[in-house]
Design goal:
311 residues; alpha/beta; four-stranded mixed β-sheet; 10 helices
Length: 311
């Protein structure tokens, strides 16, 4: 069975509404996606580190409880778990404050088995952080050489805007590793001072990776790919309770769609058809819409059970 391997940070997301905390859940960009995939019955593994505290224990147990292999999540002595404060506005979009004990960034792990057509999801600042870059880049190269499909979610937050020059070489290397790149218009506004999908693709992405997804909140999703393929997809309408995990779950749905449609590395290399893109984007949008229906960062267990049945 093909598997999905996520590599990224773990955090505790404390969610505020109207100035009051309303929820506290384990989170992280790749983490959220891998939880949703685990709930849908996908063979999933997560690579990360967690604090040597009650939050770290909660994170690891949460992975296991949702069917995700947590053998590659390391806990270091004296380390503290990162915390994210997410403040929802009147439209239920989030503004973030992050608290992280940076001296404890270490990331030591044994590579999980990677087979051809397995899928690796990576992204956010974790994937370009100079402190853990040697370990991350080493694993990405290993996965690439073993025939995995690499899905890169740029997910670059404004609190790191002063580090753009420092991380640019790592960003470019990630684009080179990636078979598919997704980012939001906000990511590209911060990185390139340019939110336009065509301009970003032509000037910053296409030289390194031909398959590009640009999500734009409630505006249509833009796809750009080889052979001048360009298409826009309307976002599914839903009464959003929280948009915190919307992008992460788009990633989960897209990857679920690749597994369900048996999209292989051969298909990626030879170019996806319009019908294949349609199926993958619809799957991504359905997961994203489902996540936004609740305060949590992932699709519901009930949605996951339905997806298992449909497979």
């Amino acid at each position: 069975m093909r598997k999905v391997i996520g590599i990224g940070e773990t955090v505790l997301d404390i969610i505020f509404k109207e100035g009051q905390p309303v929820s506290a859940v384990p989170g992280g960009s790749a983490f959220n996606a891998i939880i949703s995939l685990g709930r849908c019955g996908v063979n999933s593994t997560f690579i990360s580190e967690a604090g040597n505290d009650r939050i770290g224990d909660c994170v690891i147990n949460f992975l296991k409880d949702n069917g995700v292999n947590a053998d590659n999540v390391n806990i270091f002595p004296d380390s503290k778990s990162p915390i994210s404060l997410a403040f929802l506005d009147e439209n239920n979009n989030a503004d973030y404050i992050f608290y992280k004990d940076h001296p404890h960034d270490q990331l030591e792990f044994v590579y999980p088995e990677v087979n051809p057509d397995d899928i690796v999801i990576f992204g956010s600042f974790f994937a370009i952080n100079p402190v853990v870059r040697p370990q991350v880049a080493g694993f990405l190269e290993y996965a690439h050489n073993h025939g995995a499909i690499l899905y890169y979610d740029v997910n670059f937050r404004s609190q790191h805007k002063d580090e753009i020059m420092k991380i640019t070489p790592n960003l470019i290397e990630n684009l080179e590793f990636a078979d598919i790149v997704r980012g939001s218009h906000e990511d590209f506004e911060i990185l390139y001072k340019q939110p336009d999908a065509d301009k970003v693709y032509n000037s910053e992405i296409s030289f390194y990776c031909k398959k590009f997804i640009c999500t734009r909140g409630s505006e249509p999703v833009a796809i750009r790919a080889e052979n001048n393929f360009a298409k826009e997809y309307d976002v599914l309408k839903t009464d959003a309770v929280s948009t915190i995990g919307a992008g992460d779950n788009f990633n989960a749905g897209f990857i679920f769609g690749m597994l369900k449609s048996n999209i292989t590395h051969y298909d990626i290399e030879n170019g996806l058809t319009e019908k294949q893109w349609d199926c993958l984007i619809l799957s991504g949008l359905s997961f994203s819409a489902e996540c936004c229906k609740d305060i949590y960062n992932y699709v519901s267990p009930e949605f996951g059970e339905k997806m298992k049945l449909k497979k």
